[in-house]
Amino acid sequence: MADEEEVVDEEPEVAQAGSGDSEAGLSPVEAEKPLAPPKYEVRPRLGHKFQAQNVKAIILSTMKEQLTDRQYRADQAPRWAKMISNTVRQRVQDLDMKRYKILVQTTLLEMKGAGFKCGQRCIWDPETDYYTDELFRNDTIFCHTVVYGVYMY
Amino acid sequence: MEVKECNDLTEENQFIVDDVSKIIKEAIENSIGGTAYQHNKVNQWTSAVVESCLCQLTKLQKPYKYVVTCTIMQKNGAGLHTASSCFWDNNTDGSCTVRWENKTMYCIVSVFGLGI
Question: For B58, which residue in chain A has the nearest alpha carbon?
């Protein structure tokens, strides 16, 4: 009699354990479905990289447009520098390189025989970030423009 | 579902012009303060100024990419003008330009900081 009771008690435990297993059995099945591949890009794809050659052409043509046949004038020079910067930036933006931040820096010098040295260093990701620069010279003006393209993750 | 706070406008994610300006001034003073323009040394000087700026900027430990440019010009009566135009996010990115001179030369340093 006592044995029968013990046997009876064990069965519900076995039944519960069985149902526990079946619940645990559901989640491994879900985890076996393959995960979707990551969609967020941390590198520009082929075709979406910084277009260095096009940007170089833009810089050179802008400087030539603005400065050919002009002589250095101290009152006009700041305006020319700003106009070149803004125009280059607008044209580079029109190239529509996705997720790139654009920096343009223009330096206009009067040619009077002074010595001049320009240097730069960057802390960035060399696989995604680039720069191009161009010079323009005539008798009295020396102009240097550099464009940086920095990728936004 | 947890709602995360927007981190974009905390101090850590903003370009603080005053700090950067101080760093640049120190870098210039330490590298070329008290020297006269010498054509054969100018290469070293621009490198020294830029390296020292970058070194201090990385010590700020902010999630930023930096571009530092340095221009040194002899005082000769010639005019020099610099302009820059940028396409970025105003909340996180910024720039700082410092103009320094002594009796024989001008030095212009620009730092651009771009948030990651």
Answer: A123
Tell me the two tokens of residue B30. 């330490």
Does the CB of A115 have a partner CB in chain B at under 8 Å? Answer: yes
Over 50: is that where the pLDDT of A110 sits?
Answer: yes
Residues 6 or more apart from B59 whose CB is under 8 A from it?
Answer: none
Which member of A86, A113, A124 has the closest CB to residue B85?
A86
Q: CA A11 to CA B50: how far, in whole Å?
A: 79
- List, for residues A9-39, the tens digit of each pLDDT value: 444 444 444 444 455 555 655 566 788 888 8
Residues A127, B81: Cα–Cα separation, whole Å: 32
Output the CA–CA distances (angstroms, integers) from residue B39 to A81, A89, A116, B34, in the order listed.
Answer: 26, 33, 9, 16
CA dist., res. B114 & res. B96, Å (int): 12
Q: Under an 8 A CB cutoff, do A118 and B66 touch?
A: no
Predicted ipTM > 0.85? no
A1 three-state secondary structure: coil
Domain boundaries, chain A: 46-151
pTM above 0.90, yes or no: no
β-bridge partners, A2:
none
Cβ distance B115 to B37 under 8 Å?
no
The CATH code of domain A46-151 reads 3.30.1140.40
- From A96's Cα to the closest Cα of chain B, the distance in A is 12
Per-residue burial over B38-68, b = 16 or more CB atoms within 10 Å of its CB, e = otherwise? eeeebeebbebbbbbbbebbeeeebebbbbb
